Amino acid sequence: MKKVLKIIFVVLPLSVALILLLSLILADRWLESSAGRQRLEAALADSLGMPVNVRGDFSIRLLPSVGVSGTDLLIGDSDGSGSFVESETFHANIALRPLIDQKLHILAFSAAHGLLDPQEFRQRKRGGADTTKSSLELPWIEQLVLEDFGIALPGSSLLVQKLELKEFQAGNNAALNFELSLHSAEGEIAAVTALTSLLVRPGAEQIIVEIEEFKIESETQTLEGITGDISWRPEQQLLETRLAWQGDGVGAFQLSGSLHTAAVNGSIAMDFLAPGIATPLRTQLDFTRQAKGIEFPSIQLSFDDQRVAGSGCLLSENKWALNLDLTSDYVNLDQLKPLYSGAGAGGDKAGLTFELNFAFSALEAHAGGAVVRNTVISTGKQPDCSLLLD
């Protein structure tokens, strides 16, 4: 009986381990062959929903979990014309049992030190309906991680320190968390940290990001506790946003907006409620993106019975410059004081990181019991948006 137990508890486990090791060795040799490389590319393409090319070296790893690591990965490149994602290194966790049968099932995928080019995605979208459909109708993804990725944007760039997507499937909410920073030619503009959930409706008719925690940090300002949602409708090429934020002693903001990406224009509506004030300041502005900045052809503000209208622009060439030219028939600065005093309660954190050129003319202005007619309040230079057209 003791010999039988010895066989069961010693010899049998060793035999199983040896068989498993030999199977993995054979699987490793198969994986490193041309057939294994093609199967790996197909499995990654199925998991990511885009064509995949593995051009560098790759090998199997047993610890801490069975996986495949490699270099020089291209995603979205099926004909050598350009890729949506390029990565110096990648790793894919794979299921063990199918691997022994020379089959690949991707459990999780991560990539690092790469570049994501939205322009390539847009070109592929215009190039054919099949590519667009496969790119948007993503299959089940247990885990997707990107680290140290650059994203090229017009006039600026994003650096993704880390992006993690867990348990994604069309029609279900998936955890999407990321850390990134926005850069211009002068350096870092802001850093963003977010905990969100991602929902892609079947057929990719709408993509929704629900914001649970959102934090923006710059040299002069830190905003955290932002909540809301962002919605993208690919067919209409419409981006919609609803955000809310409230700070101690500062007030509460509610912002909603829409962007028509095909025409590069849209509108934003914002309500700001200062502490102790029952009526919010309402802002409505239309915007159009130009080569050298953003134009605001229409700006509308209202507070109680006061109305302000005008236009402006945000110039992005060299140094950021905000130009605003506003007018009003009637304004009561005493009533408005809680609004701008609340907005400035952040001290040094509320400092401006851009040039402000502001002109405000009023037919009738009330302040401190006095009434002034045909007055102009200005700061900086005379607002000038002609550079947008140069």
General description of the model:
There is one protein chain. The chain is of the alpha+beta class and 390 residues long. The protein is 20% helix and 52% strand. It has a 21-stranded mixed sheet that branches. Strand 18 and strand 19 form a beta hairpin. It is elongated and about 85 Å long.
List the SSEs and their pairings.
Layout: H1 2-31, H2 34-48, E1 52-54, E2 58-61, E3 67-75, E4 85-94, H3 96-100, E5 106-116, H4 118-127, H5 129-136, E6 141-153, E7 156-168, E8 174-184, E9 187-200, E10 207-217, E11 222-224, E12 227-233, E13 238-247, E14 251-260, E15 265-273, E16 281-290, E17 293-303, E18 306-315, E19 321-332, H6 333-343, E20 355-367, E21 370-379
Parallel strand pairs: 5-6, 19-20
Antiparallel strand pairs: 1-3, 2-3, 3-4, 4-5, 6-7, 7-8, 8-9, 9-10, 10-11, 10-12, 12-13, 13-14, 14-15, 15-16, 16-17, 17-18, 18-19, 20-21
Order of helices and strands: HHEEEEHEHHEEEEEEEEEEEEEEHEE
Strand fraction equals over 45%
CA-atom Rg in angstroms: 28 Å
What structural category arises from helix and sheet content?
alpha+beta
Residue stretches low in confidence (pLDDT < 50, at least 5 long) are 124-137, 342-352
Major sheet, described briefly? 21 strands, mixed
User: What is the global morphology?
Assistant: elongated
Number of helices: 6
Average pLDDT value? 78
How helix-rich are the residues, as a percent range? 10-25%
Q: How many β-strand runs?
A: 21
Q: First CA to last CA: what distance?
A: 94 Å
